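Example record

One chain of 896 residues, shown exactly as stored in the release files.
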Amino acid sequence: MAALSPTSAVELLLVRSGQVFVHSSLSASPAALRPQAADQALDLGRREALLLAFDLELANLGYVASVRLRERLKDALPAEMIALRQQVIEANFKATGGTRRLEPLFRRFPDGIPEDTFTLWWDRVIVHFLQEPDQPCVLCRRAGTIHALNPCAHLVCDRCFEGTNYSGCPICNRKVDRASPFFAPSPPRKPGPPVDPRRFALLDLGNPTPEHTLEVASRELLVSLCQRTQAMSPVDVEALLLLLREYPEQIVSWLPAQIPVRENLALVFGALLRGQVDAARAASRSAAPQIRALFAAARAHFNSATDVLRLIAAFSGAPVALMPQAKLISSKGPAAALRFGARATKSEGWISVMHHRFAVAKLPRALRREALAVLDRFPEARLLEDLRRHQERWVWVAEHLHPGEYAGRFPTAARAFSVLRNGAAAVPDAPRPWPSEVAHALATANFAEATALLVQRPGEMLRRLDLLLRQAPAPHAVLSAFFDLLPRVATPALLSLRAHLAARRAPLAARVYWPKAGYYVPSPPKDLRPLLAAELVTEATARFDVELLRRFADKPAFDAAVLDEALGEIIVPFGERTASKSSVQLPRGSTVKLSTQQQLRLFIHWCEPKGGERTDVDLSVGFFDTSWNLRGTCAYYALTALDAQGNAIARSSGDFTSAPWPDGAAEFVDFDRARALAAGYRYAVMVVNAYAGLPFSALPRATAGVMLRDGADGDVFDPRTVELAFALGGEHGIFMPLVVDLQTSTLHWLDAYAPGMLEFNNVASSQGDVARICPAMIAYFATGTRPTMLELARLHAAARCRRVIVRGAGGARLFVRGPDETPEQLLGRLRAGQADQVLAPPGAPGLADAVTAALGTAPALALLHQGDLGLPEDSAVYALFRRRLVPTLAAADLLT
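Predicted structure tokens for this chain:
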């Protein structure tokens, strides 16, 4: 996965799974690059040197080449090696969100950070207002020490401000021209300790045989994405769109028979239509034949009017989730200078305004006819109901479709749009919508009628099942009716419902609503819903287990599976459309144990658009006690957080107030977890604030992440130590990606945004949002109301495998299905931990080898937290942290 977006299929597969396609990224073919026979001996020696240099460069980036990749590279030409090197460097930048060139404001960070930020602030104010070019320094009174910086024009004394430490203007903290003599060379940094190579990510040969081509791998990925059964994350959406751009002619023949998620269907055909129409316009020809051909291929997939609306949205470049769109509106007015700006003039702010309509692209006549033809084939009652579901958008889109022009050709569609625009009075016999009938039945407590209506639509009944089980006088009859619908319920929804009902025996500690928008809505602190009867919950969850095991049993079987118990801390992905793009697909609510031996370094990197507005993004850490009271801060206004004895708990690398194109800017924060805990702090919250300028979504690059380091020495940014990197997005001013529980040394991944203020956000101003959102989310996920990856892994293993190996706190344990043991019984033993054999005790040095030996040589199913095992060839692999493996499965693939 990537924090930044890949730009080609080669780069996409390299970033996602570590596959390297030799000869795939070069404009010339290998034959065209091959040297003449007379030069081959010379090039052989050069290739050997290049291969060694390439290995060293990979290690410097945190990668290691597989045996077969190295064997292939032995025959590579110098031009190929050079191209591949650049490809890997670019992929590493996009995966980690930064490079070793990232430099903080204080170059000697974490040394050389002022402990008294207030005194430093006063020095900056005095210099800003009082220093003159032809006078001695106003602070130290020395003459001949003043330097004018470009472009901010501040006058800086090289005795009062260390030019060997600063990389920007000491007064306004802007990026400036480093050619000034003020910026003296800084002493070389101490080399850092070596990084454990076991943390390196494996790069493997993507095309080991002639049959395994880049096109084949791209097709496999596209089919996998199209078969997803829940809305995709932004990373997966970008991957799908990239493949659509790279293979427009092949896509239709690659598509699977079914595309379960309607948004994915719209993305595919919307992008293909857009490409054909743009190509036809560029060539001054009609796109009608291509439009008709694409609609002929898509027509079998359409089953509602909303599918057509999503298609038009995708064609127009609008979100296919049909959510309100945030539009940035410039707001100009008088304001103070931007934190030590040269002058205070009119400032430009940005206001995010939500629009329920989307900008409809110009629709060719052929596209309008085909869209109306699809709508016209639906029964009128169903069509009208679908139109009303998104009435405001449909009324707007109808102005571009012109259904009245085709009333004779498509009468059903024209009549439905007339009712939509003019109301039912225009057509007296218009049918009553289905949602109104359901709402009426529930309002009048006619649960028999409500159940009869809801069974027509399994998804709607699933959403209301908890309500019906609480209120219906015959809940077992409701449950029985729902059981009949189980084959038609999507796997992600069924798995989530099982976890939800299993937690309904007791009140939840917190409830959280997850709308489609990029934020969450906390409910009142108490769960006041009536509890569900224990026998209902037991009956429902047991039946759901049977159905899930039946589905997974249809997938390819393996003799053995290996599972990591640590997956119990990882939530099954949900609400992925609003997830941050990340190098590791860590779903909201997941937790990761942190080594107490390693140092935590947080970072952000952002870049303003070329010629764009100056933008200030701030990285801060807020320290909270057990009751979520703010106790300490490390931010731009407190560069060093101290304990009562004056010892540094946290240090900020300095506050850049601009990030000009193309290099941008970076900020870092180190904090001592043991010292913070001793000072009475319980939680450390990473907070990224949009302080001034553009919102996150308007920046060409905006990333953040976490490094786990063995010390503070070495490069400030070391890609080998990046454990998690993610993109900053959205229009909201406050981003709370994670919380570190200092007492348990646990990282809670929240991925939560809050609106904040239009400008000048910081930890102090947002502490109310932090203290409201973070504890509610942590408490919510601790209730178990969301399924975990371990539960999903157990279901797959019990349904598909004869032997199951579990790695965890109990060491490595082996479960073997008995001759008469059912999948349900094996699943029960996996949950209870009733193993047949202990392969290795906890902490045994040979634990990994014992697991590898027990797996044997046949392909296995590996569902892992850490990809640090040796596995047989052709194994199916999911690994949260892929390490030495090349994953073949994503979490979403396990839900299909």
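Notes: Residues 435-552 form one domain.
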